[in-house]
TrEMBL record:
One of its GO terms (molecular function) is phosphatase activity. This is Serine/threonine protein phosphatase 1. One of its GO terms (cellular component) is cytoplasm. InterPro entries: Ap4A_hydrolase (IPR050126), Metallo-depent_PP-like (IPR029052). Gene3D superfamilies: 3.60.21.10.
Amino acid sequence: MNLKEQDYDVYTLRGNHEENLIDAHKNYEPKLFQKFVERINKSANLLDEEGKLKTKYIDFVLNLPYFIELEDFWLVHAGFNTNIEDTFSDTLAMLETRRFEYDEEKLKGKKVIHGHQVIYLSEIEIAIKENKNIIPLDNGCVYSKPHKIYDYKQVGNLCCLNMDTKELILQRNIDE
C-alpha cells in the first residue's frame, strides 16, 4: 500500500487471506473479529482504537482484482477453473485452487503465473527453464526453519520472476 502511495507500479491481487479477512469482518461478532486479527493473525496494526478494521484496509482489499491479464500472462493468486465455460467467473478457484489444468483456448495461449501452493525451488526453476504454461512462484517464504511438512532447505524464499528476461529473483526469509 505504501509503495502504491509513492507512485510505484505495484500490482496486487486478492488472495485467500484477504478474502478471509473481509469475510471475518462481515460475519464475526466484533470481539471475535478483534481476537481473530490480533491473536490468530498477529495483525493488530490493521485495527483502529475501537478494534475495528481500519477503513483504508477495507477499501484496499475490496478493490483488489482476482486476476490481472497482461499481453502474454495471467497473474492470479491460486489458479483458474478451466473445467467450466466461463473460467473467469469462478473467483473461489482464483483464491483457493491448488492444482488446475491449462486450457490454451480459454487462457488465450497466455502463461499463468500463480502462488498459493508451496512448491519446492527446483520445481519452480524447472517450470521457468522449460517455459511451462503454468509457472508457480510460491516457495513458502515463511518456512525457513525445520517444518513437519516441507523440507525447509527447499523452501523459504520470496520469489519474483522478471517476465521479460525469465530471470528468477530470490530473497531468502530474513525473519527470525
